[in-house]
Amino acid sequence: MKHAILATAALSIGSRVYAAISKTCPEADVCYLLSIPNSTASSGAGDIYFQLSAPTSYQWIALGQGSLMAGSNIFVMYTSANGNNVTVSPRLGLGYRQPLHDTAAHITVLEGSGVSGGVMTANVRCSNCDSWSGGSMNFAGTSSHWIHAYKEGAALDSDDLAHNIQQHDQSDSFIWDLSQARGGADANPFVSSASGAVCLASSTTASGGPSSSSSGGGATGSSSTANATGSSSTANVDFYSLSYSKKQRMLNAHAVFACIAFVALMPMGAILIRVASFKKLVRLHVAIQALALVSYMVAVGLGLYLAINLDLLDQAHPFIGLVLFALLLMQPIVGLVHHRFYKKHTGRTLWSYAHLSVGRLSIFLGLINGGLGLQLAFAGPRAKMIYGIVAGVVGVCYLVAIAFGEAKRGRTESRQGQDEKERNGRDSEGVSSGRA
């Protein structure tokens, strides 16, 4: 019995001594801590522990999993109704609107949470942060992508997990070195951290980031922060060294150039060649489609950069986008051959049907892929509705133009056939008269 008690005590002490915590402070007074138990680190899934800490002069602060606000798993902390506790609200990032409370998040606000000395602190255990609606995170990996944000101002003092929060004052994205946070038992490491019974590594954030959100419930307790030294564990490289606003501008630019190509220019050029009839119409058609291709090339470049860095190449939107790019690169060559053979044979050839089929398929597929892109970016219902209406109108107009063009072509060929028949009849009469 005595040996069992000693063994239990030894394990308890060992778990406290070897609990690892990684710390990152985007501001001198705003800090986030992360601790991953050995059991979670070995399997890649399970409980993780994190801490949010900031003065009460901040209206709220948030920590999120992901590279951009869209699709991120966010945890927002603000003061509770009595002003002595904290509320932690789990939310899902939905793009350009306020993150919504996520009832599927499994979090527990732990001992040591609360408001003390003008500082609000939340010690949180999350049991399903390895996967959420919009993303996942492997805690057995070497690093992971996170975002953070904060809003300064009067305290919210609310127990409502879905409390309305105003847009952030500052946001950033960063890479967290998970190896610095791994170690220890599946237990609250932050209470122990006050007595120094942890191994804590500090890290610095990279630029870029999220917008508000968070999870949870209220808790009482005194504020506690871990103070220790450590080595930097955050990598400021390439995509993640960009500011969050720059990433959003890249995402916006990708959408704008793709829409210019598939919602405006490409359908316009295709409709004109069907319904219009004037000198140099073909040249105008070529110019418009060439401009559309250039616009789409820009969109593809931006989209590919984002998809690679955000690990989205396995999604339908980027895959369809690359297929469309390959098809459109062939169109100028196929179109040139079609035009030459059309003039030579004064009618459609196999090249003509290839050019028409690829063009029509590309336009409709591009319109559909725009909707998939909005879904992938977690765009709001209003943005989806507006795009759906515009894309629908463009698609219908293009279908009408196709029908009109085919009918027009049929009438033209009918007249040409009738004229040729009449000419042949006249020539036949002339030959007969000569013989007579």
Task: Describe the largest sheet.
Answer: 7 strands, mixed
Structural class: alpha+beta
| Contiguous helical run count | 8
Ends: how far apart? Answer: 134 Å
What is the total number of structural domains? 2
- Low-confidence segments, given as residue ranges, are 1-17, 193-197, 204-237
Give the helix level as a range of percent: 40-55%
Please report the total strand number as a whole number: 16
What is the level-2 CATH architecture name of the largest domain?
Sandwich
Mean pLDDT: 80
The CATH class name of the largest domain reads Mainly Beta
Give the radius of gyration: 31 Å
> N-to-C SSE series?
HEEHEEEEEEEEEEEEHEEHHHHH
Bin the strand percentage.
15-25%
CATH fold category name of the largest domain? Immunoglobulin-like
The dominant shape is: elongated
Within CATH, the superfamily of the largest domain carries the name Cellobiose dehydrogenase, cytochrome domain
Domain Cytochrome b561: 216-413
Organism: Friedmanniomyces endolithicus
Region (Disordered): 206-232, 411-436
Subcellular location: Membrane
